[in-house]
Amino acid sequence: MQKFQIGDRVTLASMPEYVFVVIKAKIDGSYVIESLEGNNSVLSYDNVSAEMLKSFFDKNTVIKSSILW
What we know:
By secondary structure, the chain is mainly β.
């Protein structure tokens, strides 16, 4: 089973088009994740199991970010 750390970017199996950030790792192995929406609202899920999450890594995003800095 994959483990995630606070700050990791992940996608949710049921919502792969959204990128979430892990904001809390719970003692039972579940996570709290959040995603900022365009209208300054926050989409948050609690008690999400690791099996429902997938690491998000977009090589193009990282390259674009490093070029800007």
